[in-house]
Design a protein that fits this description.
Enolase-like_C_sf, two-stranded antiparallel sheet, Enolase C-terminal domain-containing protein, alpha/beta, 156 residues, globular, metal ion binding
C-alpha cells in the first residue's frame, strides 16, 4: 500500500517493561521505526525508567493522564535524556486539546502531535479556540486559549 510507518505507539501492555524494551530494540534496529510509550508513561517515575533503561524512543504526554505539573516533569526528563515527545489526549473536547496544543507549541520540542480526539465526539461543544485544517492546527491570538463551552449544548 506504500505506507511507511514512523511510529509504533504502545505495542505492549502498560506494565510489560521487558516487552516494551524488546519491541523498541527490534523496531528501531531492524525497521528504523520509533516506539512510543503511552500507557506505560503515567508519571515522572515511569519516564525516568523508560529513559534510564532505554525502553522506548518517545513518550506520549496526555494532560488528563499526568496533569500539568506531571507533564512538565516528564518534559524535563525527556529533554535531558534525549527521548522524543508526543502530545496526545484521551477522548476530550477542543477545550482540553487546545490547552495541550498550546503547551506543545510553547515548548516547541514535541516531535509528534496527536490531538484528534475531539473528532471522535458526535458534536463539538466548544465555541472559538483553535481550528484544524487537515494536519494544520491554527491557534488564535485570543486570551487564554480562546475556547469556550457552548453551555446550551452540554448535557447534564
Amino acid at each position: 500500500m506504500g505506507v511507511t510507518p514512523i511510529l509504533f505507539e504502545q505495542p505492549v501492555h502498560r506494565d510489560d517493561w521487558e516487552g516494551l524494551g524488546h519491541v523498541t530494540r527490534v523496531a528501531r534496529d531492524k525497521y528504523k521505526v520509533s516506539v512510543a510509550a503511552d500507557e506505560s508513561c503515567r508519571s515522572v517515575a515511569d519516564a525516568d525508567r523508560i529513559a534510564s533503561e532505554n525502553l522506548a524512543d518517545v513518550v506520549n504526554i496526555k494532560l488528563a493522564k499526568s496533569g500539568v505539573i506531571g507533564a512538565l516533569e516528564i518534559i524535563e526528563v525527556a529533554r535531558k535524556s534525549g527521548l522524543d515527545l508526543m502530545i496526545g489526549g484521551m477522548v476530550e473536547t477542543r477545550l482540553a486539546m487546545g490547552f495541550a496544543g498550546h503547551l506543545a507549541a510553547g515548548f516547541g520540542c514535541f516531535k509528534f502531535v496527536d490531538l484528534d480526539t475531539p473528532l471522535l465526539l458526535s458534536e463539538d461543544p466548544v465555541f472559538g479556540g483553535y481550528e484544524v485544517s487537515g494536519s494544520v492546527y491554527n491557534f488564535t491570538n485570543a486570551r487564554g486559549h480562546g475556547g469556550f463551552l457552548h453551555w446550551d449544548n452540554v448535557v447534564w
